[in-house]
Structures are given as structure tokens and as C-alpha cells.
Design goal:
about 325 residues; alpha/beta; 4-stranded antiparallel β-sheet; 11 helices; globular
């Protein structure tokens, strides 16, 4: 089965007063039809810029995609015209943005924001678009959907607004949905509901899903594969069970140790990731995680380790000590 999305050696950079920022620096990964893939990392690791690059929403200036390919259904999105790309957005690839209150237009009704996509991409008349909007609101668990069409975003709760965003993303039956930190502004209970809703709908409708998050714990039960990003690069990638149970990069290990666990004593202290994310304008030739790494050796300062096989099939790690980490984890 060929991949629905195939990102190859993607480079996205920003020209700033402080210097050149390589926000996405040679990223490659695939998403199969109907598959859920998680992209995990701290703020500033390049997750959202990578997603915006897929949809070609990088503002130029100051940003630009300088190299790579983004193959979607066999077409290179970087080779499409602006008009062709506009037809891909919403129709073939849906997006759920991080904060629905800033993504939804405050002066337009929910109904107008939902039907606009159908009218633009499918040529639907107003009555047909309204029926489809009511159907989608019901699908995402919104009560009294007909009345909601006439309401404005400020009249809805945070959880309901995020459900509206999911409904808008599903409007034209896309083959891929990108969810950029879809639960950040929500409380823990609503986070679980939204994630269950998204993954349940994508399985039911056979839609591929990319979940972007900073929290490995959030996607533990939802993602089939996980890509861990740091300083614009993927530092570990593989099937979710392998990444969680046999991590082969110090950054992944640090992220997992910082997640609260129910099997630890209540008084146990969390083990945070030490140090600060790197300044992307001042990276040297070595591993970007080296200053924060408990396992760093002299070789880490000489070159950036390539993303290579580690452990089970499909499991990759960009660490010179990837094999030693397995033994260290077993002894811990």
C-alpha cells in the first residue's frame, strides 16, 4: 500500500533579525491511508511549522520552504499553483488549529463558517450546505445542532468550539486531517473526549490523522506511529508501542520520564527535561540535544547523528548511543 502523505527531506526556514532559523531541517516521514500518526516535541521543535508547510501556509517573508517534497496522493504539493493548493486545503486536507477561539471568525455565525467551505469546494446551495452542517454537528456530538448554526463562537464553550473545528475539518470529507495541539486550551476531561471523538471519527470515516502535541502521554493510546521532533529534526520515529516501551533517544526518554504516572507513589517527584530548548540561530555541527543530555559523549559534539535503525523493524533513532540506551533502560 502506497503512502497517502510522503514528506521527503523537508526544509523550512525563517529570516529574522537574529539570524536564519531552520525551523524544519530535513524532515522525512509518511502517513498511510486511515493511519493516525503523532508528532511530539517541545514548543519550538518545528512541529507546527512542519504542518503549516504541508498546507503551504508559511508566510513569505519571512519564511520559505527551501528544499524537499511533499507528496500527497502522488502529487507534489510544492509544485502546485496557488489556486490548485487552495482547492486542496479544506477539500482534501483538513486542519484543526490549536486555539479555536482565534481560528473561528468572531463576527460570522457557526453556520456561515461551516457552509462556506461546502459552497466553495463542492458548489452546494445554501439548503444543502445547511443540511450537511447539521449532520456534521450531530456527528461530533453537538446538541441542538440547528440552533447552533445561528450562534457565534463566543456563545460556545471551549470544548464545543473545538468540536466545531473538527466538524469544519470534516466538511468536505478530506483524506487527511492535521490536528495542531487540538487539546491545549481544554481541561483534562474534555481533552480525552476530543481525542476519543477525533480518533473514533477518523477510523469510522477512514481518514488519516496527524496529531501534533507536546505531550507523549496524550497520544499513547491513539497513535499508531510516533515521530519525536527536536530542534527542527525527527530524532526518533517508530511504531507507538516500540517508542513507548523501548525508547532509543535521550530526548524521548526525558519526555516519558516527565509524564505523571499512576503506578508511581503519589509523593514521587516528576523528572523534568533539564535545560532549555536550543537557540536555532546558533546551532553548531553537533547534536542539538547534547547540552541537555545525560548520555552525551565527545562524538556528539563532532556531528549530528543520522536517523538510523534501532530495535524493532521501523524503529529509528538519531543517537550515537542508541543501542546502549536499551541496556541502560533495562537496568533502570
Amino acid at each position: 500500500m502506497s503512502a497517502l502523505l510522503d514528506v521527503r527531506n523537508l526544509h523550512t526556514e525563517f529570516r529574522t533579525g537574529a539570524g536564519l532559523v531552520r525551523a524544519v531541517d530535513g524532515v522525512s516521514y509518511t502517513v498511510d491511508p486511515g493511519e493516525t500518526v503523532a508528532i511530539v516535541g517541545e514548543s519550538g521543535s518545528g512541529k507546527s511549522v512542519g504542518a503549516m508547510s504541508i498546507l503551504r501556509l508559511i508566510p513569505d517573508p519571512p519564511g520559505r520552504i527551501t528544499e524537499g517534497q511533499i507528496l500527497f496522493g502522488g502529487r507534489d504539493l510544492l509544485g502546485l499553483s496557488a489556486e490548485e493548493m487552495r482547492m486542496v486545503r479544506g477539500s482534501e486536507i483538513g486542519m484543526v488549529f490549536q486555539e479555536p477561539m482565534t481560528s473561528l471568525n468572531p463576527v460570522l455565525t457557526i453556520g456561515r463558517q461551516m457552509t462556506e467551505t461546502l459552497q466553495q469546494h463542492r458548489g452546494a446551495d445554501r439548503a444543502t450546505a445547511d443540511r450537511r452542517a447539521i449532520e456534521l454537528l450531530t456527528l461530533v456530538g453537538i446538541a441542538d445542532p440547528k440552533r447552533r448554526l445561528g450562534q457565534y463562537p463566543h456563545q460556545l464553550s471551549g470544548g464545543m468550539r473545538q468540536r466545531i473545528m473538527i466538524a469544519i475539518a470534516l466538511t468536505c470529507e478530506p483524506r487527511l486531517i492535521i490536528a495542531d495541539e487540538p487539546t491545549t486550551a481544554l481541561d483534562v476531561t474534555i481533552q480525552a473526549q476530543i481525542l476519543e471523538l477525533m480518533t473514533g471519527l477518523t477510523r469510522r470515516l477512514n481518514v488519516a490523522l496527524i496529531i501534533i502535541t507536546h505531550n507523549l502521554g496524550v497520544v499513547a493510546r491513539y497513535a499508531r506511529r510516533v515521530n519525536v521532533m527536536y530542534a527542527g529534526r525527527i530524532v526518533e520515529s517508530g511504531p507507538a508501542p516500540e517508542v513507548y516501551h523501548d525508547p532509543r533517544h535521550p530526548y524521548t526518554i526525558a519526555l516519558l520520564r516527565s509524564v505523571p504516572r499512576l503506578d508511581r507513589p503519589r509523593q514521587a517527584r516528576l523528572d523534568p527535561v533539564e535545560g532549555q530548548p536550543p537557540d536555532l540561530t546558533r546551532l553548531d555541527r553537533g547534536c542539538a540535544f547534547r547540552p541537555r543530555c545525560r548520555f552525551a559523549v565527545s562524538a556528539c559534539a563532532e556531528a549530528r547523528p543520522p536517523l538510523e535503525a534501532a530495535g524493532a523493524a521501523g524503529h529509528l533513532s538519531a543517537c550515537f548511543r542508541r543501542d546502549e540506551l536499551a541496556a541502560a533502560q533495562a537496568a533502570a
